[in-house]
Every structure is written in structure tokens, then in C-alpha cells.
From TrEMBL:
Residues 43-150 form the Nucleoside transporter/FeoB GTPase Gate domain. NCBIfam families: spore_ylbJ. Pfam families: Gate (PF07670). The chain crosses the membrane at residues 48-71, 83-101, 121-142, 286-304, 325-343, 373-397. It comes from Guptibacillus hwajinpoensis. It comes from the Bacteria. The keyword Transmembrane helix applies. InterPro entries: Gate_dom, Spore_IM_YlbJ. Keywords: Membrane, Transmembrane, Transmembrane helix. This is Sporulation integral membrane protein YlbJ.
């Protein structure tokens, strides 16, 4: 039978089963939808929106080209990507997924990178942000701020290792040649590129900011849809009995890796949605080291929810999704192993023993800035989201009137 026919049958069957499950189990569907919506409404939207808007403005003004020319000698030898990849990496770490995919796709659409360079770049720039790792996971789930140091160190170090490995992705493909002006220094070239980019974009700054807000909110609406969808899917596979079968397979894999089998459900949930998987991992009875290793893998793998967001963003370009999925498996393995390696020298010998004294590690000290920001978002995030959704509606109405006239 033709492979495409098989894919069509599998897709049709899967969607039909999910639709029937939604009809048969409306209470579970509603509860999972509310859970996903609450997370997006209070945390995801207000925490990502400022980064998205500012990044759109930086790209439009030309700051990204400025950074790209300056950092070309660093990014090209290490990762075989243009210097602008440093901006994507920085924003990916600061704002979290799917920022890395969004800005990689933006560079590709502007023809600043090739498709192969985009596949290398997106593989190591789509990661969790510090706010989620320290505040949500370490403090919110594990009630152990010191654990955030291990999770963050393993996560971001593993990310860099993935970038170094992915530099060998299609080594035979030629990259764009860097344009150099022999009579100008690199700093001068960077300023010239900054000015040329700003001049070439003839939009007024007000229009530029409006477009940045509109594009950012549109992307976050898509992100919210995926979060809710996969929250429902994660709930339904448990209700219809598929989770027990899949958990049995994962339990066998955990036993082969000499990890506690009771982490099978947290791992399965984390493969779909990282927040639920991380929470279930923290609630399990397994040793803390095993919990940390599974949580590191979940954070690095991103979950099918985030991967679907990335696939949707990359669909507008010729950047393929398969290398990104391979990189997620690679990152998950790196993060779990690094957690094991760093556990004794950093967590046991330094953090737990008190050899290093920092406010974040003392639970009697006031909340850190990251923790304060996280709890503030929980209280005010919904109002921020509501305000900007109203702005988005007004922008959409204005655009439609302008286009119709």
C-alpha cells in the first residue's frame, strides 16, 4: 500500500478517535481545557509578549543585522550559522519556546540564512526560559530553589552541545558568503548595515510598533491553541486507556536505564506537555536525583505541544522539522546525563552542604526577583492578557477597514 495512503488513514483514524473521545468525555475535556487555558492566560502570554514585541522591533530597526556582523566570527566557526544566530539564541533563552523557531523562521523569510543553516539554528535555540525553570519547576513544583541551578545548568549546557553536534548537519552544503568591505572595520560595517536596514524599512515607528504587537499576539494565540489542544489530548489518552499501554513501554525503558519505574506516567505526560510532566515528576515517590533527570529530559524534549508549535511556525519556510525533532531527542539525552554528572559536585557538595551561600538557596530569605515575577504574573497576568487581546481586536478592525477602503 502507498505510504501516503497509510498516512492519510492513520491521520483520519486518529482525529476521529479524538473527536469521539471529546464527545464521550466532555467533563474531562472541559477540565483539561481550563487547565491549559489558565496556564496560557496567566503565565505564557504576559511573560512572552514583551520579548516578542521588542524582538520584532529590533529586527525591523536593524539591530539584529548589527549583532550578526559583529558576532559572525564567533557563531560561524562554532555552530556554522550566521552571526545573527547569536540574537536568536539569546532571545530563545530569555523568552523560551517557541521564540527560537519564530526568529529563525524570520531570518529565513528575509533570506538572511539558508534552509540548512535554519535547521542547525532552530535545533539549539528553542529552549525553556529561566523564569519557568527556576520559578515554576524548582520553586513551584519541587519547592527546592537549589534544584533550579542543576536543571538550568544541564538544560543550557546540553543546548550548546546540541548546537555543536548539529554543526555537522549537512557539512557538504555551502553557506552564504559573508559580505565584507575591505576598507571598513567590522564595527563600521555593523553600523552601516544597521542604518541601511532602518532606511530600507520606510514604515513610521508607530506603524512598526503596531505591526510588532499584531504579529506577536497572533503568534501567541497560536501557542495558546496548541497548549489547550495538547492538554486535552494528554487527558484523553489516560481516560480511554491508551496511557496505560504507553506507560508500560516507558516503564520497560526506565528499568533498562536503571531508573525508578514509577516515573513512567510523569515521563509519558511530559512527552506531551512539559508543565504537567514536570509537576507529576515532582509528586512521584522516586529519589530526587531520578526526578531531576526525568524533569531535565522533559524540559529538553519540549513536549509534543511545543514541537507542534515549532512545526507550525516552520511550515511557512523550507526549514524541515525532522532535524529539530532529532535535536530534541539529543538534547533530552544530554540534559539527563548532565544532571547525573553535576548532581554530586554541585548539588550535593556545594548547594546542599551550604558551601555556597546565595539568597536563592536559603528558603528563609525573601523571594528572588524571578520568583517574585512569577507570582506577580499569576496575580496580574490575566489582566495583561485581556488588555492586549483588546488591542489586538482594535488593530484587526483597523486593518480590515483600511484594506476594504
Amino acid at each position: 500500500m502507498n505510504v501516503q495512503v497509510v498516512k492519510t488513514l492513520l491521520l483520519a483514524t486518529s482525529v476521529t478517535v479524538v473527536a469521539l473521545a471529546v464527545i464521550l468525555f466532555p467533563e474531562h475535556t472541559l477540565e483539561a481545557s481550563n487547565s491549559g487555558l489558565s496556564m496560557w492566560w496567566t503565565i505564557v502570554f504576559p511573560s512572552l509578549l514583551p520579548f516578542f514585541i521588542i524582538s520584532e522591533l529590533l529586527i525591523s530597526i536593524g539591530v539584529v543585522r548589527f549583532i550578526g556582523i559583529l558576532l559572525e566570527p564567533l557563531m560561524r566557526p562554532l555552530f556554522r550559522v550566521p552571526g545573527a544566530g547569536a540574537f536568536v539564541l539569546a532571545m530563545g533563552i530569555a523568552s523560551g519556546f517557541p521564540a527560537g523557531a519564530k526568529y529563525t523562521a524570520h531570518l529565513r523569510l528575509n533570506k538572511d540564512i539558508t534552509a540548512i543553516e535554519g535547521e542547525r539554528l532552530v535545533s539549539f535555540t528553542n529552549c525553556s526560559n529561566p523564569l519557568f525553570i527556576f520559578a515554576a519547576v524548582a520553586v513551584g513544583f519541587f519547592h527546592n530553589p537549589a534544584l533550579g541551578v542543576i536543571l538550568a545548568a544541564a538544560h543550557y549546557t546540553g543546548n550548546i552541545l546540541v548546537g555543536l553536534v548539529m554543526r555537522f548537519h549537512h557539512p557538504e552544503v555551502k553557506e552564504y558568503k559573508e559580505i565584507r568591505r575591505s576598507n571598513q572595520s567590522r564595527v563600521t560595517q555593523a553600523f552601516v548595515a544597521l542604518h541601511e536596514t532602518r532606511i530600507s524599512d520606510n514604515r513610521p515607528f508607530g506603524k512598526m510598533m503596531g505591526d510588532a504587537v499584531y504579529s506577536s499576539i497572533k503568534t501567541l494565540l497560536m501557542v495558546g491553541g496548541f497548549i489547550i489542544l495538547f492538554s486535552v489530548l494528554n487527558e484523553l489518552i489516560g481516560v480511554i486507556g491508551v496511557a496505560a499501554f504507553l506507560a508500560g513501554i516507558l516503564r520497560t525503558a526506565l528499568l533498562l536505564l536503571q531508573l525508578p519505574p514509577e516515573l513512567d506516567i510523569p515521563l509519558l505526560s511530559g512527552l506531551f506537555e512539559i508543565t504537567l510532566g514536570s509537576r507529576l515528576s515532582s509528586e512521584s515517590t522516586a529519589p530526587l536525583l531520578a526526578q531531576a533527570m526525568i524533569t531535565s529530559f522533559i524540559l529538553a524534549f519540549n513536549g509534543f505541544s511545543v514541537q507542534a508549535q515549532v512545526a507550525s511556525i516552520l511550515a511557512d519556510t523550507d526549514i524541515r522539522f525532522k532535524p529539530f525533532f532529532f535535536a530534541r531527542l539529543l538534547h533530552g539525552g544530554f540534559a539527563a546525563v548532565l544532571t547525573l554528572i553535576l548532581w554530586k559536585p554541585i548539588y550535593i557538595n556545594l548547594l546542599s552542604s551550604g558551601a555556597v551561600t546565595l539568597p536563592v538557596f536559603n528558603r528563609n530569605d525573601p523571594l528572588t526577583m524571578i520568583e517574585t515575577l512569577y507570582f506577580l504574573l499569576q496575580q496580574t497576568g490575566a489582566w495583561i492578557t485581556c488588555f492586549f487581546l483588546v488591542i489586538f481586536i482594535l488593530l484587526t478592525v483597523t486593518r480590515n477597514r483600511t484594506s476594504s477602503s
